[in-house]
Amino acid sequence: MLNDATGRTISYLRLSLTESCQMRCTYCRPAWLMNAAGQGTLCADEMRWLIAQLAQRHGLHKVRFTGGDPTARGDLVEIIERIAAVEGIDDLAMTTNGLTLAHHASDYAQAGLRRVNVSLDSLDAQRFKRITGVGALDRVICGIDAAQAAGLGPVKLNTVVLRGGNDDELCDLALFAAKREVEIRFIELMPMGPLADQWAERYVSAGEMRRSLERRFDGWEPIAQGSGAAALFRVTSHDGWAATIGFITPMSCDFCAACDRLRITSRGELYPCLMDKPAGSLLPAIRDGYDPVLLDRLLAQGLQQKQPRHPHEGHVVMTHIGG
C-alpha cells in the first residue's frame, strides 16, 4: 500500500493525459496559454507500466484520466485499452469537456472505459461560449446523451459555480440532470488559475448554492459519500423530478482527511495535492528503461510531502494538472 506522511492510504490515481484542451474555460486556462505540442508527454506504454506497478505492488484500483482534455490525445483509445487490461484496476473513468463524445463514446466504452464526468457550466448557448471560449453547447449535450447510450455510466456532470457567471442557473442545470437521470455536482471555485485574483468576488459557497436550489427542490436526503469528494443528496423538484445533487467543497468544508488521491501529470510530475507544488518527477524511473525500485522510492518521497490539508491558494493552472 502507498501511504502518505499522515497515514492516508492512496488507492486512486488521477492521471493527466495532456495539457491540451479544445476549450479555454475562464477559471481553468489562461488566454495566453497555448496548447502543448505533446513533446515530453508519457506514452501509452509508459502509462501502462506505471499503473501496473501502482496496482500490483501498491493496491491502486481506481484511475481517472484528466487533462487538459483527454480526448485531445490521438491515441486515447489505445491508452484506455492498455490501462483497462491492467490487473487490479476495477474503476477506469475520464473527465472530459464532452466535445467529441457524440462521435467516440462507444469507442471508449468498447476499449474498456467504465464511466465519464462531463463539464457543463451553462445551458445558455451564449453564456456557455463566454465561459468556455467555444460555441458548442449542443455538441456537449449530444455527447452527454451519447455517453449514456454507450453505457458509460453513471454519467456525472461537473459545474464550477461562478458568481455573476452561472450562479443563477443552478436550478435549471439540476433539472436538466434530473430529466436525463444523471448526477450533477456543483463545485466551489478554488483560488488557482486565471480567476485566482478574483476569487473572493467570484466564489460561491456550497451553502449558498443549496439555498438557491431549495427554491425548487425539496427532500434533501443525504446519500452515503464513500470515498468520493462530493456531498450527495437525493432531492425532488416541485414539479416531481427526482435528482441527485452533489457539492464539492474544497474551500468551505475540505475533504482532505479522507483524501486517497495521487496526481501525476502528462509529463510525469508527481502532485500529492491538487493545490500544492509538485513533489518531483517520476520520469527517471519510467523513461529509457523501467526501474521499479527507483519508482517506489520517488513515490514514497513525494507522498511524504502530502500535507494534512491543502494550501489556501493553488500553484498551477488546472489545465496543467487536471481537476
What's this entry about, in short?
The chain has 323 residues and is of the alpha/beta class.
Structure commentary:
The structure is a single chain. By secondary structure, the chain is an alpha/beta fold. The protein has a single domain, classed as TIM Barrel (Alpha-Beta Barrel). Helices cover about 30% and strands about 20% of the residues. The protein is built from eleven helices and 13 strands. The strands form two sheets. An eleven-stranded mixed β-sheet has the order 9-10-11-8-7-6-5-4-3-12-13. A hairpin with a 4-residue loop joins strand 10 and strand 11 (about 240-250). The mean pLDDT is about 90.
Key terms:
11 helices, alpha/beta, 323 residues, globular, two-stranded antiparallel ribbon, 31% helix, eleven-stranded mixed beta sheet, TIM Barrel
Number of E strands: 13
Shape label: globular
Task: Based on the coordinates given, report the CATH architecture.
Answer: Alpha-Beta Barrel
Number of helices: 11
Query: Mean pLDDT, nearest integer?
Result: 91
The helix-and-strand class reads: alpha/beta
Our Rg estimate from Cα atoms comes to 19 Å
CATH topology description: TIM Barrel
Number of domains: 1
How do the strands line up in the largest sheet? 9-10-11-8-7-6-5-4-3-12-13
